[in-house]
């Protein structure tokens, strides 16, 4: 390293240290003030038992209300269950007496959600993926005490997050990946042409699986530093790529059965738990093979300048091999189903709103005069309406119902005492459908997210804690910038090549552990 580069790095490090100390001092002052306010509120808080909610019966609790197909709530998906409870009990609801579950408090107003986030502390606790944490504790050969962003807590979580933040959360983090994500999008558009029915120009009933292939190819190019070939026309049903997709589907289904529905897996090794272990072992076995290939490639290089490597995986491998491995596995498990479902919803809303689609196409054509041109980082920076389209789609069809925090101490929310260890869930998917916050909430109106918009009330003026598709605070989604880049890139590439139409019944989806497409995605594609 040259002397000038050394001095520049030292100056930058000093600036970062000064900013960190300033932020830490401010945070300590705010935390002290917040603690005093909380202590005062707790003195006058109503007891936990007074929080409205379904009454748990002696011995039976509340579990009988959630028996599939029979119980009061068991006939519906999670979003509908929560809507029923909000309509019956109000903006704060206590749900307890569920076999194998801690008491959970549901929040249905942005003001209450803000309070939850404000008191989460510098090490937010989120004990909501217990089955996954159990798996990781029992696979020491893979995780070795590093449980990743999803299931680790406290200082262990903070140390892990601190290591990956510089490579995931900075605005420039996506720059090195735009070209390859654009290549994946272009290849996917070519495949979409071949999948259409020659007469109807509609995509097949199983196109949803193609969306998952696109999502897997995209996230692997980031997380595993390689292309898997998911978009090949002759991909076999028993290929590694399809096995990975099937494994992630099954993983989320089993997490719903183990962590959401009443389950005895905490007491003994149930059939679902055994299947859960088998499924993730299969997924990890394939993924680790590619991580090891990246490590071998890095070991063979003679260049020791870490700045010459743009790959997140390689940078993390240089920093901490175990962190790199676990982070890659985290990205893989989070980046297939969630992104694949969300992009399906995005294309659905665009297809059903032709006037919005045309406005989007005008922007895309102005920035990409040649529809075969690749998207660059500079082009992404110019997109305004496309970004608004993505935001509005996530309002109507978010990846999950809400964001969960586990209270680290006794707190007061909504005038009620909530003891330490209780889970609190901010139900943003219902909040964003409130007409007082988002006028005409059922309609797809990207204009509400446009700065300087005079056509429609601006979403920028609503409560800032109403819309949280990627969470908030230290525990917000680490992959947000990458997910947004993937969605924007594919959206613009598709719209620049096709007019997309929908001629079927409204979109159906299942709200379980994550929101999952339930309709055949039979889009009609008309070449431009």
What can you tell me about this protein's structure?
40% of the residues are buried. Helices cover 51% and strands 7% of the residues. It is an alpha+beta fold and 528 residues long. The protein has a domain at 161-399 and 469-527: Cytochrome P450 (Cytochrome p450, Orthogonal Bundle), CATH 1.10.630. A four-stranded mixed sheet has the order 1-2-6-3, with helices on both faces.
Give the secondary structure arrangement, pairings included.
Blueprint: H1 3-44, H2 78-89, E1 92-95, E2 104-107, H3 110-118, H4 130-137, H5 140-143, H6 148-151, H7 154-168, H8 178-195, H9 207-223, H10 240-260, H11 271-300, H12 312-319, H13 321-334, H14 337-351, H15 354-367, H16 377-382, H17 385-396, E3 403-406, E4 411-413, E5 416-418, E6 423-426, H18 428-431, H19 480-497, E7 498-501, E8 509-511, E9 515-517, E10 524-527
Parallel strand pairs: 2-6
Antiparallel strand pairs: 1-2, 3-6, 4-5, 7-10, 8-9
Number of strands: 10
- Describe the main β-sheet briefly: 4 strands, mixed
> Which strand order spans the largest sheet, edge to edge or round the barrel?
1-2-6-3
So how many helices? 19
How far the N terminus sits from the C terminus, by CA atoms, comes to 52 Å
Structural class: alpha+beta
| Helix content range | 40-55%
CATH class of one domain: Mainly Alpha
Which descriptors would you attach to this protein?
single chain; 528 residues; alpha+beta; Cytochrome p450; 4-stranded mixed β-sheet; two-stranded antiparallel ribbon; 19 helices; 51% helix; disordered N terminus
Task: Kindly summarize this structure in a few lines.
The chain is of the alpha+beta class.
């Amino acid at each position: 390293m040259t002397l000038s580069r050394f001095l520049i790095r030292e100056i930058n490090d000093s600036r970062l240290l000064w900013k960190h100390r300033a932020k830490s001092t401010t945070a300590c002052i705010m935390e002290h003030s917040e603690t005093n306010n909380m202590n005062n509120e707790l003195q006058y808080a109503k007891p936990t038992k007074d929080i409205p909610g379904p009454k748990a019966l002696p011995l039976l609790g509340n579990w009988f209300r959630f028996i599939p197909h029979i119980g009061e709530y068991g006939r519906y998906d999670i979003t509908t269950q929560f809507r029923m409870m909000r309509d019956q009990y109000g903006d704060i609801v206590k749900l307890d007496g569920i076999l194998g579950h801690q008491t959970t408090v549901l929040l249905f107003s942005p003001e209450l959600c803000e309070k939850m986030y404000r008191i989460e502390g510098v090490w937010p606790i989120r004990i909501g993926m217990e089955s996954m944490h159990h798996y990781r504790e029992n696979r020491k050969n893979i995780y070795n005490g590093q449980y990743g962003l999803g299931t680790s807590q406290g200082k262990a979580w903070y140390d892990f997050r601190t290591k990956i933040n510089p490579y995931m959360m900075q605005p420039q983090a996506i720059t090195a990946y735009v070209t390859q994500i654009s290549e994946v999008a272009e290849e996917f558009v070519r495949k979409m042409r071949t999948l259409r029915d020659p007469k109807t120009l509609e995509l097949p009933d199983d196109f949803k699986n193609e969306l998952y292939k696109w999502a897997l190819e995209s996230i692997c190019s980031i997380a595993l530093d390689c292309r898997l070939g998911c978009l090949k026309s002759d991909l076999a049903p028993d290929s590694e790529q399809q096995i990975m997709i099937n494994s992630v589907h099954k993983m989320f289904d089993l997490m719903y059965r183990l962590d959401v529905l009443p389950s005895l897996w905490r007491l003994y090794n149930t059939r679902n738990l055994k299947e859960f272990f088998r499924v993730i072992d299969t997924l990890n076995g394939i993924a680790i093979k590619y991580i090891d290939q990246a490590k071998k490639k890095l070991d063979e290089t003679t260049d020791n300048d870490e700045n010459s490597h743009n790959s997140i995986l390689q940078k993390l491998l240089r920093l901490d091999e175990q962190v790199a491995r676990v982070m890659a596995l985290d990205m893989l498990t989070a980046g297939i189903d969630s992104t694949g479902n969300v992009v399906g919803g995005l294309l659905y809303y665009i297809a059903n709103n032709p006037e919005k689609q045309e406005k989007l196409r005008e922007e895309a054509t102005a920035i990409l005069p040649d529809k075969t041109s690749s998207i660059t980082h500079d082009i992404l920076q110019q997109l305004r309406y496309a970004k608004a389209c993505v935001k509005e789609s996530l309002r109507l069809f978010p990846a999950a119902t809400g964001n969960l925090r586990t209270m680290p101490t006794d707190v007061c929310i909504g005038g009620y005492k909530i003891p330490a260890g209780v889970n609190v869930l901010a139900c943003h998917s219902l909040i964003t459908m409130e007409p007082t916050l988002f006028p005409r909430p059922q309609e797809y109106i990207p204009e509400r997210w446009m700065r300087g918009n005079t056509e429609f009330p601006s979403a920028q003026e609503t409560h800032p804690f109403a819309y949280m598709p990627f969470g908030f605070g230290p525990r917000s989604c680490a992959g947000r910038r990458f997910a947004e880049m993937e969605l924007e890139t594919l959206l613009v590439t598709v719209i620049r090549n096709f007019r997309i139409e929908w001629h079927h019944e409204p979109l159906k989806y299942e709200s379980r552990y994550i929101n999952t497409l339930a309709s055949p995605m039979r889009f009609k594609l008309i070449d431009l």
